[in-house]
Design goal:
The protein has one domain (about 5-340). Helix content is about 5%, strand content about 30%. It is built from 4 helices and 16 strands. Strands 1, 2, 4, 5, 7, 12, 13, 14 and 16 form a 9-stranded antiparallel beta sheet that branches. A 7-stranded antiparallel beta sheet has the order 3-6-15-8-9-10-11.
Length: about 350
Amino acid sequence: MTTTVPSVVGPIAFATYSNGPVRGQQGWLSNSCGNYDYDANVVNTSSYPSAQWPATPPTKALEVNNSITQTCSNGLSTPPMQKSSGYATALTDTTTSPATVCGAACQPYFGMQFVATSATGLFQPSLEVSFSPEWTNQGAWMQVLGLWHTLDSSNNQKLLIFTTNVEGVNGGTTPCSGCAKYVSHEIAYVDPTLPHTIGMTMQFTGSDADVVKFYVDGVLAGVSQQQFRSWEDYYLFDTSSTPAVSPQVSRAVNDLLIHPGNFDTCLNFADFTGACNQRTSGPTHTTTSGNGFLLANVVTCSGTASNCSARIQFTTCDASRSAHDGSTRPIPELLVSILGNAARPWF
């Protein structure tokens, strides 16, 4: 019996990185739409004494904030894995003509995980950063996982983990232009002052049927549901995706894009999915400069569910244990014009 070896990057602890911008270091990629329109730097954790960690703080971490945002889907991404995940027909390199397809070696599963903590150890109004599986920093997102310091429905200060799926189209027949149906979902509300282990898995199961799951502090998470969709429907049905190919096909992934957002006018999740205009005062996203999130133990895996689970421990034996309990378990194309209310702020 042949054992398939997964492709893994990480866990990245940043100890061997130089302080300063992470772009260009040890495979991290940058494809900006206007100068370097994000702020991400390797820092000494000793410079952030109020930041909380699950156990002994790492020597260094990646500090990411949203004081600088951008208007395209590119940005900063983790080092690409040698293998890609998706379907054999999925596009990988779209800079070639014709675009390259993933082929028979494409893996059916993608997983990622990291630890995120507030650099100040405090709630930071307007702090929001999203994370998207894509291919070699080319900006074709296949999911979005957002981390946002905001208010819950009872006006408590929280870190909201949320996602925006593409769930079919808004009526009519396919293919169609600008018709993808974006639906946002709450994943979890957690303490914004404490560290949290955040994970995502993507199982490429068949056309129009990808399965995405999220894990928060070792527990399968979701407020109203625990199984979600990828963005394959956008590429399969919406002709505004680029490059134009016929027949339309999905996209493969091999890295994780980090994308800061501007949520200054969104009061909470309900407002985010509506008009996003109820927050009229308070600190803006520019105030997160030099703070934001500290990230550590960033890991990505391309393979199968079984062989990636050996590299990334998404769940714990005791689900009641939180990631800040001091345990030693592993911690481990421009779409603005078509998104509408459900996702506009983070572009």
